[in-house]
Design brief:
41% of the residues lie in helices and 16% in strands. The chain is of the alpha/beta class. It has one domain: 3-Layer(aba) Sandwich (Rossmann fold), CATH 3.40.50. It has a five-stranded parallel beta sheet, with helices on both faces. Helix 1 links the parallel strand 1 and strand 2. The longest helix is centred in the last third of the chain and has 18 residues. The radius of gyration is 14 Å and the shape is globular. The protein starts with 5 loop residues before the first strand and ends in a 5-residue tail after the last helix.
């Protein structure tokens, strides 16, 4: 696994963020996992605005894990902005959400999402998804720099 890779997770649910961090720890993944709490916060981070202006403290992510249903700006709106922005569009975005609605699956792929994953219900299943994601995105795939 390549170290020095930042993963940015946008999710408003503190329990989901904690479980994801635990799943990364459980899988012994050395990636830099960071969190934002909604789509507005995500865009501020990605664009280096406000409290995220210092790129040494807030490095550009190599992968975004995106929940769809968040306050202020939902994941669909944030995804649209990411994929319309030439400076951001190459960052892979993986939707990780409780939704299994066909319109969400089709709609996010239409917007340019790289993968759509329904959040697993158990910690063991989440740990397995995290390990698979990590293997795929950081060992198999070559990411743009």
């Amino acid at each position: 696994m390549r170290e020095g890779i930042t993963i940015l997770m946008a999710d408003d649910d503190a329990d989901d963020r904690d479980l994801t961090r635990d799943a990364f720890d459980d899988a012994h993944l050395a990636n830099d996992l960071r969190f934002v709490v909604d789509g507005e916060d995500l865009m501020d981070y990605l664009l280096g605005r406000g409290s995220y202006a210092d790129r040494t403290l807030h490095p550009k992510p190599s992968l975004i894990l995106l929940d769809l249903n968040m306050p202020r700006k939902d994941g669909r709106e944030a995804l649209r902005e990411i994929k319309e922005n030439p400076a951001l569009r190459k960052i892979p975005v993986v939707v990780l959400t409780t939704s299994d609605a066909d319109e969400d699956v089709h709609g996010t792929y239409d917007l340019g999402v790289n993968s759509f994953i329904r959040k697993p219900v158990t910690f063991e299943a989440l740990a397995s998804v995290v390990a698979t994601l990590s293997s795929y995105w950081f060992e198999i795939v070559r990411l743009p720099r």
